[in-house]
UniProtKB/TrEMBL annotation:
Residues 73-408 form the Histidine-specific methyltransferase SAM-dependent domain. InterPro entries: EgtD_Methyltrsf_superfamily, MeTrfase_dom, SAM-dependent_MTases_sf, SAM_MeTrfase_EasF-type_put. Gene3D superfamilies: Vaccinia Virus protein VP39. The keyword ATP-binding does not apply. GO terms for molecular function: methyltransferase activity. PANTHER family: ERGOTHIONEINE BIOSYNTHESIS PROTEIN 1, HISTIDINE-SPECIFIC METHYLTRANSFERASE SAM-DEPENDENT DOMAIN-CONTAINING PROTEIN. The keyword Methyltransferase applies. Keywords: Methyltransferase, S-adenosyl-L-methionine, Transferase. This is Histidine-specific methyltransferase SAM-dependent domain-containing protein.
Length: 432
């Protein structure tokens, strides 16, 4: 097969002339010449290319990826002297954490998943249209998870591409599911392949964090390719508004990532405290069990357990209680773990090469995870400020609580306020 490798000069790159045939399927890590290309020509960082037949690319950077430094991050967030102590939320997303999260999805109270899913079902052809017409080469889904909503989106996009005569070029879009959980990525992608028969989209996966993804996409070699980001499930709102803005900025040209076609975001804007409380602290204890899992995962990271010399019981569940609370000022539900007695442990710090003491006072709140609830106005502000992304279209659930937003670079285009497409069965697909 003829290889179309990215050349360093963007201007001279054939893909830049949009009337020519595109073939980004040559990104496949299984392609030997590309393996060579990645290993030998990329300067920073050099992704570890997996020869995994499932087409997974391991994009973690061993020095900086949160996935590889989770032990150090856990220790420093539990020993910091200023501000609130915390558990890195990534502790919740190992294999066991994912299955505990699935049990939350199965409760009747956890509305965000169902509402977003229903909205996508209803509006999917409208949602897929701007992606199809944005001449995207690469579609990356952040925190892709079980890919069940993805199947819907890709099927609609594939159909759109079939009928999109105005789309320049005839090459396929390459879809990458990015997540931190290897086994989840493998099983979800397998399922996705079974459930879909896509003619215009190839499926791959990226193992790494959001930051790893931003760095991977910013490689000069990928500069000529048009990129669309998909981030569903209200995961962006696990960050504080300022952090979310900063993270989005990493996927823009301000951070060296060229050719961003657009960002599709799924964001929950429900400000009904009672409804949120039930969803995030269900009577069956599903959320509590998931958040408490951070203890087991932290114990594994810090190698603390019954055999440890000092403080082996620090992360024993019986020494902790869960507390969830709605913070109306921050518009987010916050999950904490709180020691029921003073806890002390001595941990070997790999970073500093010495032993470090962890002391947690009785009743001291340790933050685990937050889930923000952002209105369309909030989303617009977060995306404009810093990332410079302008809101082009949005689709909303009944009552306007949940929004799916299509954003593109260029914040100055729409100054006249927000118009929204309601989930009212009306097929209007207004641009504003
Ligand atoms: C709330 S689930 C959403 C899954 C899916 N997008 C959906 O809408 O159903 C969050 C997903 O993000 C992944 N995740 C969490 N933190 C991450 C990080 N820092 N980098 C990459 N993925 C992350 C988790 O493993 C999990 O699969």
């Amino acid at each position: 097969m003829a290889q179309v490798l990215p050349s360093p000069g963007v201007e001279s790159h054939p893909f830049h002339q949009t009337t020519k045939k595109r073939d980004v399927s040559s990104f496949s890590p299984a392609t030997p010449s590309l393996l060579y290309h990645y290993k030998h020509q990329l300067s920073t960082p050099s992704p570890n290319i997996s020869k995994d037949p499932s087409d997974m690319i391991d994009i973690r950077s061993s020095e900086t990826s949160l996935l590889d430094t989770l032990d150090t991050q856990t220790l420093s967030s539990l020993t910091q002297h200023t501000g609130e102590k915390s558990f890195p939320s990534l502790l919740l997303w190992d294999e066991k954490g994912q299955s505990l999260y699935d049990s939350i999805l199965a409760t009747p109270y956890y509305y965000p998943y169902r509402v977003e899913n229903a909205l996508l079902q209803k509006q999917i052809s409208h949602i897929a249209t701007p992606i199809a017409s944005s001449t995207t080469d690469i579609l990356v889904e952040l925190g892709a998870g079980n890919l069940s909503k993805t199947a819907l989106l890709l099927t609609a996009l594939d159909r759109c591409l079939d009928s999109c005569s105005q789309r320049p070029g005839t090459g396929k879009i390459v879809y990458y599911a990015l997540d931190v959980d290897r086994s989840l990525l493998e099983s979800s992608l397998k399922q996705l392949r079974k459930r879909t028969a896509l003619k215009n989209i190839e499926l791959r996966s990226l193992l790494g964090t959001y930051e790893d993804g931003a760095r991977w996409l910013s490689q000069p070699d990928l500069a000529p390719y048009r990129k669309t980001m998909v981030w569903l499930g209200n995961s962006i709102a696990n960050f504080e508004k300022e952090e979310a803005s900063a993270l989005l900025t990493k996927f823009t040209s301000q951070n060296g990532m060229q050719n961003l076609a657009g960002f599709l975001l799924g964001v929950d804007g429900c400000l009904d405290e009672e409804k949120v409380e039930k969803a995030y602290n269900a009577p069956g204890g599903e959320n509590r069990r998931w958040v408490l899992h951070a203890l087991e995962a932290a114990g594994e990271q810090l190698e603390l357990g019954p055999d440890s010399l000092e403080g082996g019981d620090m992360f024993d569940e019986k020494n902790w209680r869960f507390e969830g609370r709605w913070d109306s000022e921050r518009q987010r539900y916050e999950n904490y773990l709180i020691p029921v007695k003073k806890l002390e442990a001595v941990v070997h710090s790999k970073e500093e090469g010495e032993k470090k003491k962890v002391v947690l006072e009785e009743g001291e709140k340790v933050f685990v995870l937050g889930s923000g609830k952002w209105t369309a106005r909030d989303v617009q502000t977060i995306c404009e400020k810093g990332p410079g992304l302008g809101l082009r279209r949005s689709w909303h659930s009944e009552g306007d609580d949940y929004g799916v937003y299509w954003l593109q670079p260029g914040k100055k285009r729409f100054d006249s306020g927000i118009e929204m497409d309601d989930d009212d069965g009306d097929d209007d697909d207004d641009e504003f």
